[in-house]
Amino acid sequence: MEVKDFFPVWNDLSPAEQQLLEGGAVRRTVEKGAVLHSGSLDCTGLLLVERGQLRACILSDEGREITLYRLLDRDICLFSASCMLRSIQFEVTIQAQRETTLWVLAPEPYQCVMEHSAPLANFTNEVMAGRFSDVMWLLEQILWKRFDQRLAAFLLEESALEGTSVLKITHEAIGSHMGNPREVVTRMLRYFQCEGLVRLSRGTVEIQNADGLKQLARI
Amino acid sequence: MEVKDFFPVWNDLSPAEQQLLEGGAVRRTVEKGAVLHSGSLDCTGLLLVERGQLRACILSDEGREITLYRLLDRDICLFSASCMLRSIQFEVTIQAQRETTLWVLAPEPYQCVMEHSAPLANFTNEVMAGRFSDVMWLLEQILWKRFDQRLAAFLLEESALEGTSVLKITHEAIGSHMGNPREVVTRMLRYFQCEGLVRLSRGTVEIQNADGLKQLARI
Question: Are strands A198-201 and A204-207 parallel, antiparallel or unpaired?
Fold first, then answer.
């Protein structure tokens, strides 16, 4: 994939604008676990995911964390370039969930083009609105859903993303996605095991009854 | 205040664009408690608050609610025009917290100008980023803060907004702002009263020790 393939508005940009965006782009492949962006310390630039998976998360002062949303093939990560937007006042960490190939777009040329191009500004607006919707969904889950419902939904989502019912994931990692301590995750997974929904072994959670989980998650 | 006073980019718009925006604007005064926008049912348009106070909230299926943010004098409410942005997939309710005078801007002319004007698109982007930051702040509060800290911060904020230490507000209303059931609010307020932080009487919460509340909220 080339940079232009990420932008449906590419043909609405002038050749000079296109060149400015492409000129500031670097292609990279990062390992699973790599931290690509960390809070407001650095202004990494826009990340265009060609192949792989990133997660955007926030961290508490006490070291707890929660996944805001995941970025898959063809997704654009805006908040790694939050220096571009004066009104963004929160700190997001971006981490690779598996080996990921991506384009890094320098923030200055992007901002420069966006300032004069209504199509690019409106496209950026849509990307932000999409992420905003993800976060609102998460907020509603946390506010109104019980933890067992959220955990059931998480296991099903993870299974769909990985294409397997045998999830290689620790209770600690599930807690980091969901914003809960490990102990709480372990307790609920054991309850799920008693109910025949999953089978637990060291470092894996195997889904035994997907329909039961769906019913619980009300999907 | 006129429509143009809400837009720092007004002078970057053409006279035709300015006319389009002003032509679709209606000035209204609404009573305290009035619901101005309700979910995705209607596309009310942009709300420009001249004087007063609105709150944006979300509702659960079970009738619980939580305030996302408040809009004060000179603020712009974007999500009452969420039909403009395809990627917004959540439902916000907008309610007047006191008598409020505002401009309602029809969504079609706004969208039409934004499509071709980079300054207006970028300004809209900044407004959305500001609200996004408000919601991220709320999410962090809910995730990492204890309820007593959040309640202390709420009472101080309400006191600052109303300009008084005697808050005329019911426990039910506090619960609706904070996303908690009334009983939980009542229990914590009684604890605050025991600690000498507040004095309770029918329909009012009087702040007795603002410094104590600040310390608790870690402001």
Answer: antiparallel
